[in-house]
Each structure stands twice: as structure tokens, then as C-alpha cells.
Fold this sequence. Notes:
Elements: H1 2-23, H2 25-44, H3 56-68, E1 89-90, E2 96-97, E3 111-117, E4 122-130, H4 131-136, E5 140-147, E6 155-163, E7 172-180, E8 194-201, E9 210-218, E10 235-244, H5 250-264, E11 268-274, H6 280-291, E12 295-299, H7 313-323, E13 328-333, E14 338-341, H8 348-354, E15 360-368, E16 372-374, H9 379-382, H10 387-390, E17 393-395, E18 405-408, E19 413-415, E20 423-424, E21 428-429, E22 437-441, E23 454-456, E24 460-463, E25 466-470, H11 478-489
Parallel strand pairs: 10-11, 10-13, 11-12, 15-21, 15-22, 16-23
Antiparallel strand pairs: 1-2, 3-4, 4-7, 5-6, 5-8, 6-7, 8-9, 13-18, 14-22, 15-18, 17-25, 19-20, 24-25
Amino acid sequence: MAMVKEKEQNTKDKKLLVGVIWNFSAELKLTFMALLVLCTLVTLLPFIPSSFSLSTSDFRFCISRFSSAIPVNTTTTTVEDSSSSSPDRVLDNGVVKRTFTGYGSAAYNFVSMSAYRGGVNSFAVIGLSSKPLHVYGHPSYRCEWVSFDPTQDPISTTGSKILTDWGYGRIYTTVVVNCTFSSISAVNPQNSGGTLILHATTGDPNLNLTDSIPVLTESPKSVDFNLYNSTKKKYDYLYCGSSLYGNLSPQRIREWIAYHVRFFGERSHFVLHDAGGIHEEVFEVLKPWIELGRVTLHDIRDQERFDGYYHNQFMIVNDCLHRYRFMTKWMFFFDVDEFLHVPVKETITSVMESLEEYSQFTIEQMPMSSRICYSGDGPARTYRKWGIEKLAYRDVKKVPRRDRKYAVQPENVFATGVHMSQNLQGKTYHKAESKIRYFHYHGSISQRREPCRHLFNDSRVVFENTPYVLDTTIRDVGLAVRTFELRTISDRLLRTRQ
């Protein structure tokens, strides 16, 4: 009996051994194969030419790669996923604290657009910066002036940053850096030339980097210091336009520019910014006015690479502000679907003279329909009219507030916005509705078709649950505007299409 039991036990042990070997046959085969290859390499090593060599580190790398292929069961008490390389930890309340580590550069520290003198001892630098950097970090700026005169030592000052878009930024936010060298009476007083360098520091606690950016270079004898103290300006009124984008209507632009050139008079100028909206047909409308020196067009399409609010319009209007700051008495900010108007017994000159004590005033909006038209001239004649002559119904629905536009005396403004400036010295006036207003034809500028979708001949209309009243304020000057255009640039634009 003992012999039988011993044989049965041996049989079970052999089966168990075979089972174990069978279960791990793949791993054993892989191990034996690796050892065979390793022994083969060691055997052949003396016969390999000297130009080819293998070091011990090569064998360690090979072995480590092989060993990493074998699954190893590990356990941890600090993370949920043992394959993660992040230094996560479990808090006392059982919550797993996750961490995030940044590598590389997802957004630029600073995107420079321009820099201008703000006076004899100050400068303004306009650009973009990473919005998360300003929300979660502490970026700072230092301004340094390096003279071309080797006998003059460099001077520096702390830059004061102004974030003008009030949180509207996207990946990038607009930054205006004010560099005021208050310790001296003038920068570059000998007019020997020099370079303004902006040192932009990220303020990131983990990776605090500083980029030194030459933002402005003045050639010797290039600065007219009298410009910053003169009361005589090249223009009385200058228009600073926001970024123009989309498929704009040439006819609507034609009406807008002719209306406002007449409205502001000869001592005015218009600065437009093309962010993709000035296609060939629109440019043909602007070309006569550009040739007369009444319009300057800036191509800003390259800014599309940097994702900011509404085609970076905050950066664009601030560039315009500082670029033309000392060239005009008043600077206006509104859009190309908006038309300014003063009472019949007033002129733009008389209105502005009455507001001279203010650094800024805001302008009330009169919302006009861009879909329903007045047919008092008869349907056939209506379609031959300009848009401002037939889009004559004003929205009178009561709302808490409507957007306003504004004008400033630019020498008193340090940075600006789209609807008003909050960075200026002096007073702001908000009750100018009896002096000046603007009529807003919302959406009309992007319609490449006849604007009249519905015709009415009533003084009051309710359309799509919105009440309208007939308002012929702008319509009444339509003929005068068309006549002015014809006399000024001849009939070059008579064949302009919608």
C-alpha cells in the first residue's frame, strides 16, 4: 500500500511540474531565446571588426528592454493607476490629488505689434500675451532705453501693464505697457538715437523666463520733440476703425465712407484695418478716397495667427490710438454699420467745441432695422435708393441698455477699449444724446444682397414682435451724400454692387 501511495504522489508531482512548465512555456521560451542570443553575441564578439563595438551599457540597455517586456504586478497606496508617472497623492480625506506639468510653449510670452512715444520721456508698447499667464501667473515688464551714444549709460524703468479687454481675451489677451522714465526730463534728449527694449518676464513659479524684445528703434535726429507740446494738430477728427472681417458689402461701405467724409469735413482722416474683410470689390470702393488722402488702410491679416477676441480688435484700436495720438484733436471709435448724426441746427464743429472740457464722451445708439424698408417713394424707386435712404425704421423696443460708442481727446488717454476707455485722465461725459447720436444698422454690412426684405408705408410697424417707428433722420441727408460723392470723386463708383 505504501508503494502504491508513493507512486501516486510522484505521478501528481510530475503532473504539477508539467502543468507549471506548460503555463509558463511562452515566458521560458522567451527567456531561453534571449540567453541564446546573448551567448551567441559574446561568442562572436572577438571576430567583430574594431570599427564596430558594443559596450557594457549597450548590453544593459538590451537587458533592460527585455526585462521591461515581462509584466510585473505592482501595488501602491498613493495613486489609483500604477502606470501613471505623475506624482499624485491621496489626501487625508481620501481624495486623489492630481497634478499637471507643462512642457514646451503653448502660447507666446509676448506678441509685439508696435511701440510709440507717448511724450518726451514715455513710451507705449502694444501687443498680445498669453491669457492664462495673466490670469494664473504674475508676469511683469521692465523697459530699458539703450542709446546709440556710447557715452550714455542705459536707463530702465518698471513697465506698467494695462489689460484693455477686461476678460474678453481668448488664448491671447491685449496688453498695453506704459514705459515712463520719470527720473529724467527726456529720453534721448540729444536726439542721438537708440533702442527701447521690453523685458517681459513670465512670472511662472515653475519656469520663470524673461524675453528681451527690441520694440522701438529711433534713428539719430529722427525725433521732433516739439510734436509732444504742440497744440496745432494735423487733423481735427480722426476715425479709428476696428478689425474688418467677413464678406463685406461694397455698397454699404460706399455709403458709410461718403457719408462720414462729408460729415467730418476736410480736416478729418479715416484709418481702416483689414482683417480679411477688404476684398477686391470693397477695395475698389475705398481706392478713390485713399488716392485723395482721406483714408489709410492697414493690412492686419497676420494677427489671425494669434487667437484673440474678435480678430484682436482691442489690440488694433490701441495701436491706432497711440499711432495717431498727437496728430488729431479728437479721435472717434465706432463701426462701419453705424452713422453719426448731429441736430440740424448744429455742426460737428459746434458740438465738439461744447465738449472740449471732457477727455471722453459716449454716444447713444439709435437701433435701425436692416431688413424692413420704407416704400414711400414707390417700390420701383425704392430699390434704386441707397440703403440709408430706405432703411428708415427704428427699433423702439424698451431694453435695459444699449451699447454706446465714444470719442476721446487722445493725448489724455493711456489705453482704450471698444465701447469706451477706462484708462484716461480727465472727465467723461455720458449725457450727450441731445448733441450727437449714432444710427446702427446692425448686420447690414455683411449682407451681399438687396437689404429690403419687406416694404412698409406706415409711420408705425410691428414686425416679428418688435415695434418700429419711421425715422427719416439719415434718409433725409441721403441725396446730399450722393451728390457730395459725385462731386468729390466723380462717377467712379456708380456701378458698385451690393
